[in-house]
Amino acid sequence: MAISVISFVAEAGERLDHYLQARMTGYSRARIQAWIKEGLVSVNGAPAKSSTILRGGEQIAVSPADPPPLKAEPEDAPIEILYEDASVIAVNKPAGLVVHAGAGAHSGTLVNRLVHHFASLSKIGGDLRPGIVHRLDRGTSGVILVARTDAAHRALAAQFSGRTTEKTYLALVEGRVNADSGRITKPIARDPSHRTRMTARLEHGRDALTDYRVLRRFEKFTYLEVRIGTGRTHQIRAHLAGIRHPVAGDKLYGAQIADRIFLHAWRIRFDSPATGERVTVEAPLPEDLQRWLGAIL
Length: 297
Description:
Blueprint (H helix, E strand, L loop, with lengths): L2 E4 L9 H8 L5 H9 L3 E3 L2 E2 L11 E4 L18 E4 L3 E6 L16 H8 L23 E7 L2 H12 L4 E9 L6 E4 L4 E2 L7 E2 L10 E8 L3 E8 L6 H8 L20 E9 L6 E5 L4 H9 L2
Parallel strand pairs: 7-14
Antiparallel strand pairs: 1-4, 2-3, 2-4, 5-6, 6-7, 8-13, 8-14, 9-12, 10-11, 12-13, 14-15
Helix pairs in contact: 1-2
């Protein structure tokens, strides 16, 4: 049953999420924002955004959804294993698969598959993110590392923070990139005008390093090998959009052709916590991206 809340004139000027949080004290702001994003909150009968400013007198209807699970439940779905040893598993994540639970995604994730296939994974990430040391965007395919033990998780996390891992992607971008190679060092911050997007066009943000090399030029596209020295949210997408070459298919960052994002985590190099040896793992380019390349030849 919906919970109805009436906003009075005296409280005009308050954000919708702030207003609800002050009155629904049994729920976190993140939970309330998730309900708003999922369309479970209406203002005068219409869906609204978290940032909606109340004018006073509106009727706000809230239909709380069931809380998300406290831990990832196993789901019997396939996983492509690229490499494994006593400390780590490298899997090939398909595009469209969310890595772990979050707002609006409590099942059908890579983690749900992992806990079905593997009896024991690192617990450092918590019960909803067992084994997860790093992540890939939902639309990005390719290799991702999963820690089997807490010790392996800490060792891999240290390699990521110390920038000793080597992460290489394949990307098709719009337009012809003139330079054969380049480096982008612009800081990355949340886009103030589009909260689901990051930007490299401000003077502030978190430091980020992206190197690229041209593999092939087409009439309207350029095929790149991209290496990142940092792991910021949407880093490659934001950096390439910042030099006016958005990743093909990436509508969020201005690509004209809105299809699957042509971004693939092709290769990762790291030191195995189990053996100390340098390991290289590669995920082959998916067939749909191979077809895309073939169509523009």
